[in-house]
Write a structure and sequence with these properties.
By secondary structure, the protein is α+β, with helices and mostly antiparallel strands. It has two domains: 32 residues; 210 residues, Muramoyl-pentapeptide Carboxypeptidase, domain 2 (2-Layer Sandwich). It is 41% helix and 19% strand. It has seven helices and ten strands. Strands 3, 5, 6, 7, 8 and 9 form a six-stranded mixed β-sheet that branches. It has a two-stranded antiparallel ribbon with strand order 1-10. Strands 2-4 form a two-stranded antiparallel ribbon. A hairpin with a 4-residue loop joins β6 and β7. The longest helix has 30 residues. The chain is elongated and about 95 Å long. Bound molecules: zinc ion. Zinc ion (ZN) binds next to loops. The site of zinc ion (ZN) has 4 residues, from loops.
Amino acid sequence: MMKNIRKTFFVRIVLIFIALILIFFVGYFVFQPAKIHKLPLHVQTVDCDRSKYATAPICPSNKLNDPNSIQLMHAQINGLKPFSTDSAFLKQVDKMIKKQILEKVTENRFYEIKSLTNSQPYLIPEAVDMLNEIGYRFQQRLKEKRDTIYRFRVSSLLRTEEMQTKLTHRNRNAVTQSAHLYGTTVDISYKNFYNTATDVIVPSWEAIQMLTRVLIEMRKECRLLVVRERKQACFHITVVVCKNEETKKYSLVD
Ligand SMILES: [Zn+2]
């Protein structure tokens, strides 16, 4: 009799235990918060004092008005040989990616890419690192100020001569000798930003201020050359590459 009671008690405990485990698992899968999709974003940056060791001369500045001639000089030293036509570029692109002389630029948690009509979403790896660094610092500064988190919008990247010619007819800023031909140069729009909280694209004075601050900061460090193009409402930015072989690898994902 006593043995039977003990056995029933034991069975009940086991059943309650199993039920608790089931409730836990069902609850976990039903009520778990939406997973945040983190993109792998490993940034490899060659770290050096670019005022001394860049591949082309550059002096620190706190102004966003680097002339095209200087941007072009850096672009020509560090970038690709320009492609005359879109089809010539498309024939070569896979090979260049394999050789790691070109990278496809894809959207991530720092920026969006506007629908591109006159450029291709590719840059040299150093320019991709620079773009990610701008995005990382931009969002860090917004976080520090407890401001809304925005993503900026990339409006132009690599152009072929064919694309550049089409653009020059409509756009006075697109000079024949554009730094965009070399894969070293990118345009970031300041007209609108993607507001991550409301999921809408909006103009934002705060975001413009913060982006400007980050670009001045990185211009002082000689990380980039930049000019504010008012007609296009964008920053036209060319990467400054370090010739120092010592590479410092780090990740922007914490
Ligand atoms: Zn540009």
